[in-house]
Design a protein that fits this description.
The protein has four helices and seven strands; from the N terminus they run E-H-H-E-E-E-H-E-H-E-E. The chain is α+β, with helices and mostly antiparallel strands and 161 residues long. Strand 3 and strand 4 (81-89) form a beta hairpin. The structure holds coenzyme A. Residues 25, 28-29, 87-89, 94-100, 122, 126, 128-129, 132, 135 line the site of coenzyme A.
Amino acid sequence: MEFCVRPATVDDAERLAEIDLIPEVRPWLDLPPEASRGRDAWVRANREWVEHPEHHCVVAVLPNGFVAGSVTLRYTRNDLDGVCLALKVDPEYQGQGIGSALLRWVIETADAVPLARVYLAVLRSNSLAIALYARHGFVYAGPTAHDCDRMVRHRPRRHHR
Ligand SMILES: CC(C)(COP(=O)(O)OP(=O)(O)OC[C@H]1O[C@@H](n2cnc3c(N)ncnc32)[C@H](O)[C@@H]1OP(=O)(O)O)[C@@H](O)C(=O)NCCC(=O)NCCS
């Protein structure tokens, strides 16, 4: 499947909200209460999400411009830690490498900043996502609240001769 990964803009907010609210996607994302206050409120929340200065949000886009998925890496320049947030792919386009490509973007960006660690939280029952994260070097880092596990990926050490 052909697609590219580009930074999200506020114009993507509507589509990002739409993906969040797809019944096969929503239960896996830890959506805040605004998500239940109607579509408009959720589009607004996504707009604020994309504009947040610590959110580095990208979208996976098909050749026709359709946004099929997204992920956000949250970090500040003076922080060693990042957080991978809201990895999501429209079920119509899952299983074709988009989720892996978005996660690779997270890792490459984190290593380039460079961040020492990237954390994420995942529902313990989300075995597909956990396997995906594990294949990309994330390891179990303990439980968090609400049936979630924390995973972490450490930036690989450079080998010096
Ligand atoms: C997790 C998620 C982002 C993966 O996106 P994706 O585009 O399907 O990812 P990929 O196509 O790169 O596939 C990742 C792996 O899962 C496997 N996979 C994907 N969909 C699958 C399916 N329906 N059945 C079985 N395996 C599947 C792929 O074979 C691939 O394995 P591989 O790397 O060994 O080839 C997507 O399933 C999703 O949006 N889920 C709902 C939201 C969610 O759970 N987000 C994570 C919150 S922590």
